[in-house]
Specification:
The chain is α+β, with helices and mostly antiparallel strands. It has seven helices and 14 strands. Belongs to the pseudouridine synthase RluA family.
Length: about 300
């Protein structure tokens, strides 16, 4: 089994009526825990629909699966304080943080920098034990170079409820992004599948047959060389905003990996992409009330924005 291998096949008739996680475990030789995590992470579709782990499968239904990589050495989140990480909200079920630049959501093989999970452990917070060992409690992620609001589950109930909410797209995720040039139209939707870049390791691209990916954007302010966009994600693929804007030929300013102009980035003093997760809204797992958390632009992005205004 290769890392990230995609498989498309019908459900065998002999598995008709089984729970989806049980059927996956039987078909691919996985544990029920791994199979359930695949469903929760949106790596499985049945007849083109996003299912739940307890849904019953029908013999002959068409199954699309992204298989996990073979298990490797355990990666643990070392408790490490992170300067600049702010706690926006904390209760029995969730903790919401304002993540600074240069911090990953969770540990990963080959990554030695700070993580949100390690910072929470160092501060004495306990999170849900659900999910793979290296990212327990993590229900969504932000790139290392992307700042902003990120929620972590503390209770097992919250983990299950929030993973379902992200899977069913009831979470409202909004970003501020500065894109090069002026998108045409000024408001629109990018509906283009995303998968790993065929030639550039570590990057992603719009690829035929990739995972369905939908990004909505609206121009909030236009400058001579760039535009400030308000972006809402309908799906949550890795690097989704960066990939979709690059596909429009309007990459995030400062995002050199996806084709941004290094000269403009230098003029603005940017060392990373201008992208900030400024608002996160969802139904609280405890009582279903709608909660919203926000974060202001961090200093480096705010300074770049002022320079853009001065240049216009």
């Amino acid at each position: 089994m290769r890392a990230g291998e995609r498989r498309s096949l019908p459900v065998p008739d002999g598995l008709d009526g089984l729970r989806l996680d049980a059927a996956l475990a039987r078909m691919f030789g996985l544990s029920r825990t791994v199979a359930a995590a695949m469903v929760d992470d949106g790596q499985v579709s049945v007849d083109g629909q996003v299912p739940g782990r307890s849904d019953r499968v029908r013999g002959g239904a068409w199954l699309d699966v992204e298989l996990p990589p073979p298990p490797g050495p355990a990666v643990e989140a070392a408790p490490t304080p992170v300067e600049g990480l702010t706690i926006l909200h904390d209760d029995d079920d969730i903790i919401v943080v304002d993540k600074p630049v240069g911090v990953a959501a969770h540990p990963a093989p080959g990554y030695v920098g700070p993580t949100v999970i390690g910072a929470l452990a160092a501060a004495g917070y306990r999170v849900s034990t659900s999910g793979p060992a290296e990212r327990q409690g993590v229900v969504h992620r932000l790139d290392v170079g992307t700042t902003g609001v990120m929620a972590v589950a503390k209770s097992e109930h919250a983990y299950t409820a929030l993973k379902r909410a992200f899977r069913e797209r009831t979470v409202d995720k909004r970003y501020r992004a500065v894109a090069q040039g002026h998108p045409d139209p000024l408001r629109g939707t990018i509906d283009a599948p995303i998968d790993r870049h065929p030639r550039k390791p570590g990057l992603f691209a719009v690829v035929a047959g990739g995972k369905p990916s939908i990004t909505h954007y609206d121009t909030d302010e236009a400058f001579r060389a760039a535009s400030l966009l308000i972006v809402r994600l309908e799906t949550g693929r890795t690097h989704q905003i960066r990939v979709h804007l690059a596909a429009l030929r309007h990459p995030c300013v400062g995002d050199l990996a996806y084709g941004a102009d290094p000269t403009l980035a230098e003029k603005l003093g940017l060392r990373r992409q201008w992208l900030h997760a400024f608002e996160l809204s969802f139904e609280h797992p405890a009582d279903g009330r709608r909660v919203t958390f926000t974060s202001p632009d961090p200093p480096d992005l705010a300074e770049a924005l002022e320079r853009l205004r001065a240049m216009s």
